[in-house]
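Q: Please design a sequence for this.
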């Protein structure tokens, strides 16, 4: 694993000398600066997170992943695209006054409707606003594109929390995003439905980057076995491979955090699930991402895909 050296260094009995520590800090600073420079040069990474069925913990994964990316110094925006259910709001105990509909058909800016979440993540409550996108005038479309384009220079990641299932709205979000993460679980229904959503994505866009997170497993070996089942079917019937992003351990701290309307990654940072989320965030941040278009072109395409 890519963080093996970091982990072993952390557990050494004797720390480095002062000169060594100074050198390590300088190297770490240079590494962070280089990574930030590379990511900003490619713009915002737009990642849709989905699942074939409900009940696999997708929204919890999105929220904790966003907070873990923010811990790495990334600027993260989460778009709640589960129409009408406002799952992230409930998960975090938030009560937003406005949602994206107020930007489209009211007099609020995108900044005004965003609410602050843990670790400085920003959340766009979508509510039912996106269901009326087809009613937009050209002026409203331009305003919305410009509003999202303003995020481009101040956002490293836009995570889109889609609804579960394979509705038309869900598919449009998945196809318009630059990358897709599918959250699955060890249950047979979750595995089958996870493959179903991947099949739809790759039939429409065979080159779409798709990664899989296996949630609520006892150990990594179980997660890789589940992923292997999904990937073998994808390879057999769709002629390509998908990527294993990682897993999240089954952890009672997750249930405890959900009941308290807090994030396990923030409330219980040393819990097994929290360590998994940090590893997932590191893996994502170390990836190069896909080629970007110009700022306004990214959001124009995203909006067109949502409407058409």
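A: Design:
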């Amino acid at each position: 694993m890519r963080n093996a050296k970091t982990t072993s260094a952390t557990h050494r009995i004797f720390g480095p000398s002062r000169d060594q520590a100074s050198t390590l800090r300088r190297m770490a600073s240079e590494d962070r600066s280089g990574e930030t420079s590379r990511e900003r040069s490619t713009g915002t990474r737009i990642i849709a997170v989905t699942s074939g069925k409900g009940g696999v913990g997708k929204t919890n994964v999105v929220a904790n992943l966003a907070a873990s990316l923010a811990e790495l110094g990334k600027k993260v925006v989460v778009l709640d695209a589960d129409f009408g259910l406002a799952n992230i709001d409930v998960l975090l105990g938030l009560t937003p006054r406005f949602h994206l509909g107020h930007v489209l058909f009211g007099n609020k800016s995108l900044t005004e409707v965003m609410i602050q979440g843990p670790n400085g993540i920003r959340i766009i409550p979508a509510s039912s606003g996106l269901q009326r996108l087809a009613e937009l005038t050209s002026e409203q479309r331009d305003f919305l594109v410009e509003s999202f384009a303003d995020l481009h220079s101040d956002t490293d990641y836009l995570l889109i929390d889609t609804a579960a299932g394979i509705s038309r709205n869900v598919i449009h979000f998945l196809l318009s995003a630059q990358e897709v993460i599918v959250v699955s679980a060890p249950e047979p229904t979750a595995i089958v439905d996870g493959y179903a959503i991947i099949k739809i994505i790759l039939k429409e866009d065979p080159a779409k980057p798709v990664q899989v997170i296996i949630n609520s497993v006892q150990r990594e070996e179980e997660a890789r076995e589940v992923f292997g089942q999904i990937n073998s079917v994808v390879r057999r019937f769709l002629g390509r491979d998908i990527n294993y992003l990682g897993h999240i351990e089954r952890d009672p701290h997750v249930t405890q955090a959900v009941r308290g309307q807090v994030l396990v990654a923030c409330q219980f940072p040393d819990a097994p699930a929290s360590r998994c989320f940090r590893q997932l965030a590191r893996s994502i941040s170390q990836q190069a991402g896909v080629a970007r278009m110009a700022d306004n072109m990214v959001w124009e395409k995203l909006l067109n895909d949502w409407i058409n």
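Q: Thanks. Anything notable?
A: The radius of gyration is 20 Å. The chain has one domain: 44-307.
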